[in-house]
UniProtKB/TrEMBL annotation:
InterPro entries: Leu-rich_rpt, LRR_dom_sf, LRR_extensin-like_regulator. The keyword Nuclease does not apply. It is found in: Secreted. GO terms for cellular component: extracellular region. Its main location: secreted. Residues 1-22 form the signal peptide. This is Uncharacterized protein. Coiled coil: none annotated. Keywords: Repeat, Secreted, Signal. It comes from the Eukaryota. Pfam families: LRR_1.
C-alpha cells in the first residue's frame, strides 16, 4: 500500500471498506486569503480530494481567528503534499483501485475559532480521527457517517542504536498516527518482543478499527447525538465543553470498541444510564462535573477493564454498589481510581469501605453517616426530599454482562496506578 502523508513517520493505514462516493458541492466563495487561482476538479488526483478541497475552503471561510496562520497553508490543489494543508493527513486504502483520501484531521492546539463543525467533519466519509483539542470551536456535534477503516500499528525494523544506562543497546519506537498515540512517537528501551505490550496496553489484537473523536477544551454545546454509538469509536474526548442532555443509550453499541471516554465538565443531565456499564473494554470512563443523577446501575459491575472511573461532582445517590468496588480487588482487579465525591450517596458496603482506606475510592462530600468530610445533614435532607425519577436497581436482579467481560476478566492485568498522561484522552487535555 502506498503511503502519502506529510509526517515522515505516519504509519500505514488500510481501508476495510470501499471509499464512499462523495457528493459534488458548489465551490466556496473566495475570501481575503483565498489562493490566487481556483483549482478545478481536473487538477486533483481524484474526486474524493476535490470534494475535500471544497469542504476545506468552505470551512476556512468561517474561521474568525487563526493565531498560527494555519489556514494560510490551505491553498491550491495539493491537499496531501509536504507542508501544505497543515492538519490534514491522507492515505491510500489497500484495496485495488482505491484512491488517496483524507483520513485524519489533527487541529490540536491550533487555536482556531469557528462557529460550527456541521458541514465540515461530517463531509469526510473516510475520516477515522478528528482531533481538535484546545481550539475555540462552537456549535453542536454533527451526526457523523464514516466508513470502517482498519489501522495497523507498525513497529519499524530499522531501529536506531543508542546508549542507555541499563545497557540496552537499541531504542525502539512505535510509529503511530491513530492507534493509541495520535501522532506522537513513543520510544523506549524495550525489546522487540515486549515493545507492544509495554507501550500499547489495549486488550486484543494490535490491528483494530481505530477511530477517535477528540474535541475537549472547546465551546461545543447542545446534546450528544442520539446515534453516537453507531460509529465504532475507540476514543471519545469531549471534556470541558457546554454539552447538555443525557448520555445516549446508543453508547452500549460501543461495548466491544470503546477504550476511553471523557465527558467531564459539561452540563450533561438525566439518569446515569445502564448502558454505560456495558463498556467492558473501557479503561477510562470520566463523566465528572456534570448534572447526572440516579443510583449507580448494577451494570457497572461489568466494567472489567476500567482503571479510571470518575463520576464525581454530579447528583448521584443511593448506595455505592459493592459489586463496583470489587472491580478493584482480586487478581483480575484493575480499578485504580474510583471518584464519587461531591454526590449524595448514603452508604457503602464492605468492599467499598476497604477501598476508602486504601485511597482508591473517594467519597468526600456525600451523605454517608460515620465518614468524615461529608455534606451537612440539612443539605442531605433537602436533596433526599426532592422527587426521584431514576429507576432503582433491584437488589436481586442478575446483570447480563457482555460475554467478553466475563470470559476475559481472568486474563486482565492486576491493578496498577498510572500517570494520567499515559491515557490517550487524558493526555490530550494538556496539549
Amino acid at each position: 500500500m502506498e503511503n502519502h502523508g506529510k509526517h515522515p513517520l505516519l504509519f500505514l493505514l488500510c481501508a476495510a471498506a470501499v471509499v464512499a462516493k462523495s457528493t459534488q458541492l458548489e465551490p466556496p466563495n473566495r475570501n481575503s486569503y483565498a489562493p490566487s487561482y481556483n483549482p478545478q476538479p481536473h487538477d486533483f488526483p481524484n474526486e474524493q480530494l476535490y470534494h475535500a478541497y471544497v469542504v476545506i475552503q468552505r470551512f476556512k471561510n468561517t474561521i474568525s481567528c487563526d493565531p498560527g496562520k494555519i489556514t494560510a497553508t490551505w491553498i491550491g490543489h495539493d491537499i496531501c503534499g509536504e507542508g501544505s494543508y497543515r492538519g490534514f493527513y491522507c492515505t491510500t486504502p489497500s484495496k485495488d483501485g482505491a484512491n488517496l483520501t483524507v483520513t485524519t484531521i489533527d487541529f490540536n492546539g491550533f487555536g482556531l475559532c469557528a462557529p460550527k463543525l456541521k458541514g465540515f467533519i461530517d463531509q469526510f466519509p473516510d475520516l477515522a480521527v478528528f482531533q481538535a483539542t484546545s481550539n475555540n470551536l462552537s456549535g453542536d456535534i454533527p451526526r457523523l457517517r464514516v466508513n470502517p477503516v482498519v489501522y495497523s500499528l507498525q513497529v519499524k525494523d530499522d531501529f536506531k542504536s543508542s546508549k542507555f544506562d541499563n545497557n540496552i543497546p537499541e531504542k525502539h519506537c512505535i510509529y503511530g498516527r491513530v492507534n493509541f498515540v495520535m501522532g506522537k512517537i513513543f520510544c523506549g528501551t524495550y525489546s522487540p518482543d515486549d515493545v507492544l505490550q509495554k507501550m500499547v496496553e489495549i486488550p486484543g489484537s494490535v490491528v483494530t478499527d481505530a477511530k477517535g473523536l477528540l474535541l475537549s477544551n472547546n465551546k461545543l454545546f447542545g446534546a450528544l447525538p442520539a446515534d453516537l454509538g453507531f460509529i465504532k469509536w475507540n476514543y471519545l474526548a469531549l471534556a470541558n465543553n457546554k454539552l447538555t442532555g443525557p448520555i445516549p443509550s446508543s453508547i452500549a453499541h460501543l461495548q466491544d470498541s470503546l477504550f476511553e471516554v471523557l465527558l467531564l465538565n459539561n452540563q450533561l443531565s438525566g439518569c446515569l444510564p445502564h448502558e454505560l456499564g456495558m463498556l467492558h473494554k473501557a479503561t477510562v470512563i470520566d463523566a465528572g462535573k456534570n448534572q447526572l443523577t440516579g443510583p449507580i446501575p448494577a451494570s457497572f459491575s461489568c466494567l472489567a477493564s476500567v482503571e479510571q472511573l470518575n463520576l464525581g461532582e454530579n447528583r448521584l445517590y443511593g448506595q455505592v454498589p459493592d459489586a463496583l468496588c470489587k472491580l478493584a480487588t482480586g487478581p483480575a482487579g484493575r480499578l485504580a481510581n474510583l471518584t464519587l465525591s461531591g454526590n449524595y450517596f448514603t452508604s457503602v458496603g464492605q468492599a467499598c469501605a476497604a477501598l476508602i482506606k486504601d485511597g482508591v475510592l473517594d467519597v468526600k462530600n456525600n451523605c454517608i453517616p460515620g465518614l468524615a468530610g461529608q455534606r451537612k445533614p440539612a443539605e442531605c435532607a433537602a436533596f433526599q426530599s426532592q422527587p426521584k425519577t431514576c429507576p432503582a436497581p433491584a437488589a436481586s436482579a442478575q446483570v447480563a454482562c457482555p460475554a467478553a467481560a466475563a470470559t476475559g476478566a481472568a486474563a486482565l492485568a492486576e491493578r496498577k496506578v498510572k500517570e494520567y498522561s499515559s491515557y490517550v484522552t487524558y493526555a490530550t487535555l494538556h496539549e
